Each structure stands twice: as C-alpha cells, then as structure tokens.
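Ticket 4471: requesting a sanity check on a complex prediction with protoporphyrin IX containing FE. Repro inputs:
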Amino acid sequence: MAADARVGSGPTDLRQPYDTVSRTFHWLVVALVLLQLALALVLPSVLPKSAEDTITAWHLATGSTILLVMLLRLGWRLTHPMPPAPTDLPAALRLLARGTHWAFYFVLILLPLLGWMAANAYGTTPRLLGLIPLPSLLAPDQAVAETIGGVHKNVAMLLLVLIALHVSGALYHALVKRDGVIRRMLPG
Ligand code: HEM
Ligand code: HEM
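Returned structure tokens:
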C-alpha cells in the first residue's frame, strides 16, 4: 500500500495518533453500525420488506449512509499515511489485526451493496441519507430477494465475528499490554 507507513522492525512509537479525519470516520462508523445492527434486530420478519415501513426505511437509510461513509473512508485511507502498527506482537496476531481491519473495509462495503440489491429485488427503493433515491440494481423478484437477503444476513453475522475479534484486540491492548494503542484512536 503506497500510503502505508507500517514497515520496519523494533519497538514502534505508539504516541503518534491517527489523524482527526480517520478518528472521526472510525467512531462515526462504529455509531452507524451499532444503530444499523439494532435496527436489523427489530426489522419486521414479514415479507415483502417495504420502504413504507419505518424500521425498514431507517435500515435502508442508515445502511446506504454507511456505504457512502466507507467509500470516503477507504479513499482517505489509501491516500494518507497511517501511524505504524505495533511491532512487539507475534506475527500471527499482527496479521490477524491487519486482516481484520481490511476485512472491515471489505464487509462494510459489500454488506450495504447486498442490502441494496435485496431491497430492489423486494421492490423497494433505498434512499441515501433517507433522502436521495438510489438507482435500481435489480428488477423485483421475490425468490432472488430472499436469496440475496439471506446472504446479506450471513455477511452481517461475519461482521459480528470481526467486531468481536477487533474489540478483543482493543481490550487486550488497553488492559493487558497497556501500550497506548487505544489512545491513538480516541478523540482528542
Ligand atoms: C453495515 C450495514 C448493514 C448491516 C450490518 C445490516 C444488517 C442486517 C441484518 C443482520 C439483517 C437480518 C435481519 C433479520 O432477518 O433478522 C438485515 C436484513 C436486511 N437488510 Fe441489512 N444491513 C446493512 C445494510 C443494509 C442496506 C444498505 C440495505 C439496503 C439498502 C439493507 C437492506 C436489508 C434488507 C432488505 C433486509 C431484509 C433481508 C431479508 O429478510 O430477506 N441492509 N440487514
Ligand atoms: C463496529 C465496530 C468497529 C469497527 C467497524 C471498527 C473498525 C476499525 C478499522 C477499519 C480500523 C483500522 C483503521 C485503519 O487503519 O484504517 C480500526 C482501528 C482501531 N479500532 Fe476499531 N472498529 C470498531 C470498534 C472499535 C472499538 C469498540 C474500539 C475500542 C474499544 C476500537 C478501537 C480501535 C483502535 C484502538 C484502532 C487502532 C488500531 C491500531 O492502531 O492498530 N474499535 N477499527
């Protein structure tokens, strides 16, 4: 990665924080994802899913906002240097942490795209930020909608696994290693 400063050996200087934009993106996405998962828990199970329904409309609006924010975040990530990753961890853990970070980018773009396709196949038009109607990716088809909806749900379960791994890693740094990694991502 051209803009990735995570190279070198020896102890890393962990005082260098993530830049303000990266930290804002991080916590904005955390808030949106938590809201989105809460909305998903109370989504009506009755088919077809319709944007007339308030909870579904919120799920589509928040999800499409996550897509927009993640694309902007990825653009920022690829064009700006990030602080170096901690080097005093076993190689396997470093790989796991890095893999989890990139998997977040992948899943948080794929998941909204699948949701968008499912919504179209259910005959619904998602609105970006709840306002701007998104173009249709698929024609209405109940069977296709249920299949893509099922994949969407499974990918959301994968997201939960990533969150569990990532938060365990963050707590390990905060409570066991006490090495300042958390501080780099906190506001202020
Ligand atoms: C990070 C973003 C997202 C997360 C974490 C997420 C999560 C979920 C989960 C867990 C479900 C399953 C609910 C259940 O059946 O119990 C679901 C269903 C659904 N989501 Fe999302 N979603 C996201 C984005 C989107 C977006 C952007 C759209 C549309 C624009 C969308 C449309 C749908 C639809 C239509 C269903 C119903 C699928 C079906 O039952 O066949 N989602 N979502
Ligand atoms: C929905 C939940 C979350 C998502 C999707 C998420 C996503 C991410 C991503 C993608 C990165 C990599 C940043 C980059 O290099 O571009 C990251 C880093 C980080 N996250 Fe999260 N995060 C979540 C929750 C949390 C929570 C709850 C904490 C704290 C308890 C946390 C603490 C951190 C820290 C400290 C880093 C920097 C790690 C390092 O310096 O190597 N994250 N997060």
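Notes from triage: The chain has one domain: 20-185. Leaving this open until the requester confirms.
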